[in-house]
Amino acid sequence: MTYTINRNNDVGPDEPRYIRALGRYCSFVSKPILFNWSITQHENIKNQLDGGIRYLDLRVATKPTDGYIYFVHGLYGSKIYQPLQEIAEWLSYHSNEIVILDFQHFYSFSEMNHRHLIETIFQLFRTKLCPLASTFDHITLHWLNLEKYQVVIIYRNAYAQNYSNLWPSGLWRTPWPNTVRVNELINFLDIELKARSLEIGFISQCVLTPDIPYVLKHLCGTLQRNLVSVCQKTVISWVNQKRPGHGGLNIVIADFISDNNFLFCKTVIDNNKKFLNAQYSM
Predict the structure, then answer these.
(1) What residues contact residue 145 under an 8 Å CB cut-off, 6+ apart?
(2) Which of the residues 94, 238, 252, 261 has the least number of beta carbons within 10 Å of its own beta carbon?
(3) Hey, which residues does 55 pair with through a beta bridge?
(4) How far is it, in rounded angstroms, from Cα 194 to Cα 188?
(5) Phi, psi of 24 (to 5 degrees)
(6) Is there a contact between 66 and 118 (Cβ–Cβ < 8 Å)?
């Protein structure tokens, strides 16, 4: 949801205190830099879904000035309500499609905020929500379509245990590479994929993440120009070399998925055809 971020928006609570202070007192210098490294997608949510995206990594936060919930990634993005509504509407027009919404991080969140967010989710998606299960064995696309379930909500907070339609973090591993080096990223992805449990979901994060020293060395740079441009070709090659399905790739994510006419999405979709071909050849 970083496409909703404006360069003049407030610095989010996901940033260290000193960065928030810079955003408050030196905003004309700090906010443009933060903006350049906070944006990870340019396309709006409808275009992402149309382009083939079926998994969304979401980070949310509140503001001390109001009771609303916002998307956040370095800077505050939009309120959550309109984009989530657009997802619900898109699913209503595409009744055989399934989307996974992974609420990864919650900042400045109280119990009341969790309750409000969950009520919003339930109001928007209602019967589309896939109920929690202790095993994934029965959860096929065919079964989901049959039951008319279209949304899996991963809720990475202990508050999820109060609800039967929220999947806990432990059932969907998402190891974070946390590097700016492509070779380290690929090595990390290989090690984690080889070690993944076959009993739960698994997310391969094909992303490079700048730290503060890296940003300070590239003050005039952007995430897309400095890191994604050198990463995407290698990541696409890595996906092509892997197989999907049991013991292989499960969920694969990347920044700026619309680059090169949604090449990343097309690569993942084509990779799924290997799985289909293997089934037909049995």
Answers:
(1) 96
(2) 261
(3) 100
(4) 10
(5) -80, -40
(6) no
Using left for φ > 0, alpha for ψ between -120 and 50, and beta otherwise, residue 201 falls in beta
DSSP 201: E
Full-model pTM: 0.94
Token code pair at residue 70: 């916002």
Contact between 71 and 1 under an 8 Å Cβ cutoff? The reply is yes
pLDDT digits (tens, 9 = 90+) for 108-165: 999 999 999 999 999 999 999 999 998 888 899 999 999 999 999 999 999 999 899 9
Q: Helix, strand, coil % (nearest 5) of the chain?
A: 50, 15, 35
Chain segment 152-165, per-residue pLDDT in tens: 999 999 999 989 99
What's the rounded Cα separation, in Å, for the pair 38 and 210? 10
Per the structure block, which two tokens stand in for 92?
């209503």
182 C-beta neighbours (distance < 10 Å), count:
17
C-alpha span between 34 and 23 (Å, rounded): 9
